[in-house]
Amino acid sequence: MASLRHKRYVCDVGVRSESPRIPLELTEGLEQSDGISYYRYLKDPFYGWVLMQKEKEKPWKPLVGFTEEEQLDVDYVMTSFYCEKHPDSTFNKFMKISIFTPDSNLTIVGNTFKVYRNGKVEQYKKLRTNNEVVELLENVFDIHVPETYHNFLYENE
Length: 157
Fold this sequence. Notes:
Layout: E1 2-4, E2 7-10, E3 24-25, E4 32-33, E5 38-44, E6 48-54, E7 61-66, H1 77-85, E8 96-100, E9 105-109, E10 112-117, E11 120-126, H2 130-139
Antiparallel strand pairs: 1-2, 2-3, 4-5, 5-6, 6-7, 8-9, 9-10, 10-11
């Protein structure tokens, strides 16, 4: 959270592809747009601040909740371990990559590549080989994949 001219802003670096493209002012009820979706923060007695999103022609939905309690480094150990290693974690089951362009969101989730534009899936492609995955990672996401990792990218579903 950052403060600028006596206003507070939250910049989400992207846990999910729905993340806002701009820092959002942390003011309850204020509707803000990143050019793709609308956002607003609500206060909840349990979750604290709740970031809501409204995509084109869809209802408002909650994305994330957080409180403003100070955290210590040790507070992140269990959540980091859970996300990376726990068998019930949704973060360690398959590849998840997302990048924003000026007018779209490009994602790979598992073996599926999607292009989102204006809140809708514009392109959908099932990835069937390691070569397809490597080509997308290198040409679309600008991620160089060493040859020794090529065989670990594609998973049969």
